[in-house]
Design goal:
This protein is an all-alpha fold. Among the domains are: 30-57, no CATH class; 62-96, no CATH class. The chain has helices spanning 39-42, 46-54, 80-86. The longest helix has 9 residues, at 46-54. It comes from Taxus chinensis (Chinese yew).
Length: 96
């Protein structure tokens, strides 16, 4: 029932009102343990490093697999279609 959904976005506890916000979606970018086998860690990424270091408290990673995007289990890998459909929806839509 669409009438029962409150579409007003609640204020974020850490972000001040009236300030700019960037949502950056990096398809294929993942963050894992920093070792020599992690291509993101060993790559030269000055722009992303600058963004992350400039406001580390506002740098947030989101899950793009499993129940976080509406897939049945943690073992279900996400993909662009599932992730893009789930991002910003405000709730989880069953995908599986």
């Amino acid at each position: 029932n669409m009438g029962s959904i409150d579409w007003k976005l609640a204020d974020h506890p850490k972000l001040p009102k009236g300030k700019q916000l960037a949502v950056i979606i990096l398809d294929g970018w993942g963050e894992e343990k920093p070792d020599q086998y992690n291509c993101i860690h060993v790559a030269d990424t000055p722009t992303m490093d600058s963004l992350k270091q400039g406001a580390p408290e506002k740098w947030t990673l989101v899950k793009a697999h499993g129940p976080a995007v509406g897939l049945p289990t943690e073992d279900d890998m996400g993909n662009s279609e599932v992730g893009h459909n789930a991002l910003g929806a405000g709730r989880i839509f069953a995908q599986g």
